[in-house]
Amino acid sequence: MNDNMLTMRNLKVVFPSNAGMIRAVEGIDLDIRKGECVAVVGESGCGKSVTSLAVMKLLNSPPALMRVDELRLDDEELKDYSETKMQSIRGQHISIIFQDAMTALNPVMTVGRQVDEMFLRHNDISKKEARKRTLEALELVGVPEAKSRANNFPHQLSGGMRQRVLIAMAFACMPKLIIADEPTTALDVTIQAQVLEVLRGMQQKHDVSLMLITHDLSVVSNVADTVYVMYSGKIVEKASVRDLFKTPHHPYSYGLLASVPKLSDTKHQFVQIPDSVPHPLRKPSGCYFHPRCRYATEQCKKEMPPLERFDNGREVRCYHPLNVTDTELQS
Amino acid sequence: MSETLDKKTIFQRIGKNVLKRLKRIGEFLGKLWKHPKGRIGLIVVTILVILAVFAPWIAPYDPYDVTQRAAKGLPPSWQHPLGTTITTGQDILSMLIYGTRVSLLIGVSTGIILAFLGAIMGIMAGYIGGFVDSAIMRVVDVMLVIPTLPLIIVLTGLFGRNYFVIVFVFVAFGWTGLARVVRSLVLVLKNSNYVKAAELAGASRWHIMMRHILPGTSHLLIMNTALTSAGIMVAEAGLSFLGLGDPTAISWGKMLADAQGGGALLFGAWWWIIAPGLGIFFAVFGFMRIGIVMEEIFNPRMKASSGIYKLFKNLNNQYVEEVFASMDERKLLTGDVKPEPAESG
Amino acid sequence: MSENENRDRPIIDMRNVSVDFPVKGPIPFMPKKKVRAVTDVSLTIDYGETFGIVGESGCGKSTLANAMIGMVKPTAGDVLFKDVDLFKLKRKEFKRIRRDMQMIFQDPYSSLNPRFNVYQLISEPMFIRGGVSDEDMKARVVELLELVGLSDDDLYRHPSDFSGGQRQRIGIARAISLNPDFLVCDEPVSALDVSVHAQILNLLVEIQSKLKLTYVFISHNLAVVKNVCDNMIVMYLGKVMESGSAESIFRNPKHPYTHALLSAVLDVDIENRKERVVLKGDIPSPIDPPKGCRFWKRCPFAMTGCKDKPAELLDIEPNHAVACHLVNDVFTDAEKDAGLNQPIEDHAEGLLGTHGKK
Predict the structure, then answer these.
(1) C129 with B197: Cβ contact below 8 A
(2) Of C169, A22, C351, the residue nearest B308 (C-alpha)
(3) Among A110, A278, B217, C294, which residue's beta carbon has the most beta carbons within 10 A?
(4) pLDDT 10s digit of each residue in chain C, 358 long?
(5) Crossing angle between the packed helical segments B214-241 and B252-261, to the nearest 10 degrees
(6) How many domains does chain A have?
C-alpha cells in the first residue's frame, strides 16, 4: 500500500526560445501524502506554476518540453499516459483552483449550473439530485443564501464568493488531489482569511491531498503541512511548516519569512531580500541564490550545492544553512 | 542671433524626427521582408506600383488606340503577349498595365482616407465621449443600414459615372466599421493608468491623443489600410463590371465588362478574360498578404505562436537531451554529505 | 515649490467631502440610483506626514484619494490643497498646481505604456511641462533611475523587460520626476510578490525622507500601514469608521471593524498563533448603503439602535476618533429604555467564524 498520493521524481521543464533554452524547472522531486497539504512557495518566475501544470500534464508542447522520471498519482503511473487518458484523470482525480476566478468560470452560465455539471459528469444522478448536492456544496463552502446565489452569474458575485464557488466545484468530483494556484492572491486580506479557512476546512473534511502554490508565506502558515521552497527552478528547502517557520535553514527561506510585513514590527524599516530572481536565461553560476545571499562564499559562486537531507525529513540546498541544531547535525 | 540658433535647432529636431520616422518605416519593411509571406506580398505590390507609375513607358502599345482594326482578336503572341481585343484590337497587356493605375489609386487612396476618417471618428467618439460619442455612434448606426449598391446607382445617375462618386461612397460607408473598433480600443486605452499618470502631469488632451491613444491604435489602422485596399479593389472591379465605373478610364473591372459585352466567351477569346482576372487576383493577393503579415507582426501573441512552431521544428534533439542531462545531479543518500557547521545566524 | 507656502498649515484639508456616482438603471427615465462612494469625510494631512487609508476593496478609499488629487470632483464638500480649492481654479492654474501631486499605481503592468522605453516613461512629465533641454532631461532621468535603484543601462529598455518590482520602481521615478510634494500611493505593493513588498516600501520611506514628501498610503493590509503611517483612517462603505494617529489606533483599536481587519492579517508567527476573528460575508453594495451605521449588517456587536441611527465620528482620546455607538455610548436614557442598546436578536450568529490554532 502506498502512502503517497503524488510521487514526482526529477521533473524537468524547458522552454526553447530564440534566445536560448529557458530552464524553468530543473529536476525537482515532490511527494504529497494522502490527506496532506503541501505548499510550493517562491517568487514569480521560480517555476512553481509550471510545476503545478506539469503535475497535470497540462503543459503544451510547444512551447514546453518536459521530462519526468516518475509521476505517480496514488498507484497510477501517469508518465506515459496519452492526452485522452490524462483528460479523464484530470476530470476525476485531479482538480484545480485558479487564481483568477472570473476567467475560470463560464460567464454566461449560472454558477449553480456550473457546479451541477461537475456532479453530473462524475455521478449517474438526475439533474434534481445534482442541484441538491450543489446547494449542499455551496453551503459547505460558506456561500450564504445558496439557493438564490446558485442562480447568479459569475459577474454578479464578489471575488471571494467566486473563489468559494471554484472551491465547491473543485471538491464536487471528489478528487484525490487538488491543486490551488495562488487561490487568494487577488483577494483582500479579510476575504483571504475567509477563503483559506474554507479551503483548509474542506480539505480536512474530505481528506484529500492539496497542493498549494503561492508566493506568500503568510498564506502557507495557516493551511499547509509541508512546504517546498523553490528558487529559480530548484527546490532549495523542504520542511514541515512548523520547522520552516521556526528555524528556516536556507537563507532564501529566511528572507522570505522576514520580508512578510508583520503587525509585530515596530521599526519604520522592512527586512528585504535585495535584487530579484535571476532571468531564466541568465542564471548565475554555482548556487543560483548567491548574488542575493549575504552568506555567500567562494564555494557558493562556483558550485551548485546539493540538496541535503537531514534525518528529520528536512532537505536544504545550501553550503551554509542557518539555524541548524546539533541534533540535526549528529544524525 | 539667438533666434537663428533656435531656428537651426528646430530644423535639426525636425530633421531628426523625419530620420527617425524613415528609420522606423525601414525597420518595418525589413520585418515584412524577413517574413516569407510578407516578402511575396511586398514583391507583388512593388511590381504593381512600378507598373502603375511607369505605365506609359512600360506598356508596349497605346491602350486607348482603337484604330488597329487589322489586329482584332489576336491570341497571345510575341507581338501581343496577352493578345488583343476582338472588338477594337486594343493591346490587352497595355490595357492591363494601365488598369493597374486605376485599381491601385482607388484601392490605396480609399484605404488611406478610410483609415484617417475611421481613426478620427473612433478616437473622437472614444476619447471625448459624451455627446460627441453618442452623435458619432448614431451616425454609424444609420450608415450601417443604408444599402451601398443602390446608393451608388442613384449617385452615378445624378453626378455621372466617375470615380469620385465611387470613392466617396466607399469612404462614407467604410469608416463606420473601423470607427467602432477604434472606439472600443480607445476606451480601453483611455482608462489605462498611464494615461491617468500623464493627466496628473498636466498633459493636454492633444498630448494624450498623439502620444498615447493614436500610437495605441496605429497598428490597427495600418493593418486595416492594407486589408481594405484589397477589398476596395475587388469592389471597384465589381462596380466597373456592372457598368458603374468611369467609362473613359481603363480599369480591370471595365476590361472584364468589355470582354463580356464584346463576346469574348462566344468567340473563344479566353485571354481577354483571364488577363484582367489575374490582375485583380495578384493585386488583392499582394495587399492581403501584407495585411495578414502586419497582423502577425503587431499581434505579439500570433507572432509568438508562429515563431515557436518554427523553433520547434528546427530543434536539435541532441542539444535538448544535453540540456536535460545537464540538470541531473548526483543523487545523494541520507547522510552522504554532512553540512558544514552553521555560521552563527 | 510654490511661493507663499506655509508648512504649518495642512497640505490637504478635506471638509465634508462626498462623492456619488450616478448609475444608469435598466429602464430609462427611472430615478437614477447613486453609488455613494464617499460620504461626508473630513480630514487634514500635514506636510511631511504619511497618511494611511485602510479598508476593503469597494470601501471608497481610491475614490477619496482621487478626490484629493482632483481626478474626481466631489459632489459635496471642499478639497483644499495648500489652502487652495482645486475645483475653483482656472484650468491652466489647476494643471500647474496639480503637478505638485502625483500618484503611484497599484498595477505596475497597466500603468506604464508598453510602447515607451524607460527614458520616455520617466521623462514624460517633464516633456509635458516643457522648458527642459534634452540633455538636462536625460541627466535628470539618470539621476532618478539611480535614486530608485535602477541603472542607466536600463534607459532604453521597455517595460516588458522588467519584473513587477522593477516596473514599480519606474513608476515611482516617474511620479517624483517633477519634484512633487504630495504623493498618493494607491496599494503600491499589493500586486507584487511578498518578497518585493519590503524593497518597495523601504524605497518609498527612503525617498520620503530624502525629498520631504507627504504621502497618502492606501492599503488593505494593516501590517503594511502600521509601519509606514503617522496618521490613518479606517474606511468602510464610504465612511470613516476610525481615525487618528496610527500609533493610538494600533495600540488601542476600538471599532469592531478595525478589530476584524487587524485579525485578518495573516501572520508568519507560528508560535503565538492568535485566535482569529474572521468576518463573514462581503462588503455590501454602496448603491443602497444601510441607513444607520454603515457596518451594522456585518458587525457582531450590532445593537437595535445601530440600524437607524448613523454613527458619528467622536473623539475618544486626543487624535483618535471612532464612529461606533457601542464605543461612544451615545444612546440617551430614553433610547436605552426603548431597548436600542440591546443586541439584535439572532444577529451575531453566523457573522463570526473563529480560526483557531492548528
Answers:
(1) no
(2) A22
(3) C294
(4) 444 567 778 899 999 999 988 876 666 666 667 888 898 999 999 998 999 999 888 788 889 999 998 888 899 999 999 888 888 888 888 888 888 899 999 888 889 988 888 999 999 999 888 888 888 999 999 999 999 988 888 888 888 888 888 999 999 999 999 899 999 999 898 888 888 888 899 899 999 999 999 999 998 888 888 888 999 999 998 899 999 999 899 888 989 889 888 887 777 666 666 666 667 666 777 777 888 888 888 888 888 888 888 888 888 888 899 998 888 887 778 878 877 777 776 666 555 544 433 3
(5) 20
(6) 1
CB B50 within 8 A of CB B43: no
User: In which domain, by residue range, is A20 found?
Assistant: 4-93+175-330
Residue C289 within any structural domain of the chain: yes
Q: Chain C within 8 Å of A223 (Cβ-Cβ)?
A: no
List chain A residues with CB under 8 Å of C262.
263
Pairing between β-strand C239-245 and β-strand C231-236 as defined by DSSP bridges: antiparallel
Domain contains C107: no
* Cα B14 to Cα B72: distance, rounded to the nearest angstrom: 57
- Supply the CATH number for residue A284's domain: 3.40.50.300
Name the one residue in this structure whose C-alpha cell is 471597384: B236
Contacts of A264 (CB under 8 A, 6+ apart): C267, C269
Among A254, A251, A229, A252, residue whose Cα is nearest residue A239:
A229
Chain-chain contact of B327 with A308 (C-beta, under 8 angstroms): no
Tell me how many residue pairs between chain B and chain C have CB atoms under 8 A apart: 58
The C-alpha atoms of residue B321 and residue C126 are separated, in whole angstroms, by 52
Task: For residue A272, give the chain C residue with the closest CA.
Answer: C198
Whether A169 is in a domain gets the answer no
Q: Which residue has the cell 521543464?
A: A13
- Interface residue B194 vs chain C (CB under 8 A): yes
Q: What is the mean pLDDT of residues A312-330?
A: 76
**CB neighbourhood size of A99 (10 A):** 19
pTM exceeds 0.80, yes or no:
yes
Q: Where are the alpha helices (DSSP H) in A186-315?
A: 189-206, 217-223, 241-246, 251-259, 298-302
β-strands A177-181, A209-214: how paired? parallel
Supply angle C-alpha B49, B52, B55, rounded to 5: 135
Least confident of A250-264, A296-310, C178-192, C329-343: C329-343
Backbone angles phi, psi at B224, to 5 degrees: -60, -40
| Residue A153 maps to a domain | no
Quick one: closest CA in C to A220, which residue?
C268
Q: Could you tell me the maximum CA-CA distance found in chain A, to the nearest angstrom?
A: 68
Torsion of CA C243, C249, C252, C257, to 10 degrees: 70
The CA radius of gyration of chain C, in Å to the nearest whole number, is 22
| Domain span including residue C316 | 250-355
Cβ pairs bridging A and B (under 8 Å)? 71
CA A138/CA C320 separation, integer angstroms:
41
Cell of B48: 504593381
Q: Which residues of A touch C260 (CB under 8 A)?
A: 190
Give domain status of residue C227, yes or no. Answer: no
Residue C160 within any structural domain of the chain: no
Domain contains A99: no
User: For the complex shown, is ipTM > 0.90?
Assistant: no
The whole-angstrom distance between residue C283's C-alpha and the CA centroid of its chain comes to 17
Question: Which chains would you list as touching C if contact means 3+ CB atom pairs under 8 Å?
Answer: A, B
Domain B36-311 indexed as CATH 3.90.79.10: no
Total of domains in chain C:
1
pLDDT tens digits, B160-176: 777 888 888 888 888 88
- C-alpha distances (whole Å) from C270 to each of A27, A112, A324, B290, C122 are 31, 38, 19, 62, 43
Q: Which amino acid is at B216?
A: G
